[in-house]
Amino acid sequence: MSGDFWGQITKREGVKQSSSLPSELKQASSPKASKNDALEKVEGGQIIPQVFISYTHDSEEHKDRVLSLANRLRSEGIDCNIDQYEQSPSEGWLRWMLNQLELADFVLVVCTEIYNRRFRGLEEAQKGQSVTWQGAVISQEMYDDFGENTKFIPVVFATEYEEYIPFVIKGFTCYKLDSEKGYESLYRHLTKQPEIIKPDLGKLRNLPHRKRESLFQESSTIGKYSEEITFIDLEEKFPSNVAILYVLEQENNYFLRLHNIAWDNPKETETSPPPPITLSQLINSQQRASEILGQLQRYRSRCPIGKLLGWLRELEELSDLIINDGTDFVIPWEMLPLRQQPLGIRVNLIRWLDIPDLENWDKIYSIPSPQSSADCCQGDVLIYAKTEELEEIKSLKSYQSVCFSENQAFLTHLKEKKETIGLVYIARHGFLETTFSQKILSYDSFNCYLQGIEFSSYYSSIIFMNACHFELIRDQFSKGYRVGFITSFLERGAKGVIGTLTEVEENYATLISQEFFQEYEKNYRLTVPQILRSLRDRIYQRLRDEPGNEDICALYFYTFMYVYYGHPNVFLKLSLAEG
């Protein structure tokens, strides 16, 4: 337990004063040294790190833990400072605190529920003002550095405190100080002594060239494998108004690669730590919708996503952006700002995944094939919903439709293909549950039931999943590819899938669904990505017309959670109900 570990440290008799730093890091340090003094290098050595601990006085036991941590760091050669070493600083507590934050090479942020509350300014008036000020300073410094951070380090004394890491530093490594191993990891970080040294770079091997092949071709050989395959570099087959972005993960870091035919070579960022703003962080931050939207305006040119936005600004003819995001970070690409507008309004944004070939798992389709003409998803609407009385289902009654509430009947009808189906609409919150007691369709059972169904062999369909969110998982049976309901539909030939990145409140889900079909009915010639783009723009205008309306902010946020995976140039032509 954390209390036991640091209680033992506190009870040690005689604090060790000799430095445990390696000899090349030893350097005399004065408690009142200036920042320039702290950074001055000694001959043949490195600097002694200055550390400040930011924490709250939750209890006497908690203060003792922090004091024990500071004492041990000092005893082992790190110039650590905390408020308990001071009685009454001559410059006053506020200026002393600001100076400590500025002078420190590292700031250890000891995360607890009280600390997080005060950091966010949610504490009662006149309570915990010091940490509230520190929170403001840390947030501002992170903002000025465009989300990059090497200074502020979250630490916890026990696992249960990890949920209280302040949002602005949640994406960075947190050190759990409930054991000697946890302390050693922090000490290695502060003294730049990694446990594992990266080996020297070797020489590149020459490998035979292999290019990508498209999944969907105008051919009857879809899904069949041949030993003689011609691979085509598909990025070069798209026109200049289309850009293709690959988001690639590497050992929990990521980098971006952007293709456009106007460039001789793709643009590529350096490998960087996880982005400071991901969807899970935004949702878990428990902020108001307006605060979340404000966070998304912070990307600037110094971070990888900021560089991407700069490259996109260079493409004046850009109308379509295809994104294959291979990471688990869940970045809300549609909401990022480009030329004073969200990216999902500025361009038609199409997402894609690595789609394995069902017959040959060595073949992966990384982007959709270029289309010489539009695909028309024409026919009736097949509905899977818990009841036909849902408001969103009532709005579909203007089309030829059939509705099923049981998954067996729904899937049987889908297999029998009694009519051409232009749209499959799924309105089952809980559709993604996997427990047997729920008796609701799971991903694995869904794959089982889909055996023998190939959409492209019989009809072209769009899938609209208004059912929780379609989480993607790493499949241990398919080389770690990200799989889910999206891949199940796409690998069987569906032209596209609409769904949500996170769970959407049911009232908003109903409203957004209705607004989607209103946009479709206003202009039947819009492609599916264009319908979503037009819908976002309409809600965006409402947000601008009604600033400060938190309900509109929430509607705007949830609208952007609806994204499209599939082929770019696909439109709907749904059969109208008789009469």
TrEMBL record:
Gene3D superfamilies: 3.40.50.11530. Transmembrane segments: none annotated. Residues 1-38 are annotated as: Disordered. InterPro entries: SEFIR_dom, Toll_tir_struct_dom_sf. It comes from the Bacteria. Residues 48-186 form the SEFIR domain. Residues 16-33 have a biased composition (Polar residues). This is SEFIR domain protein.
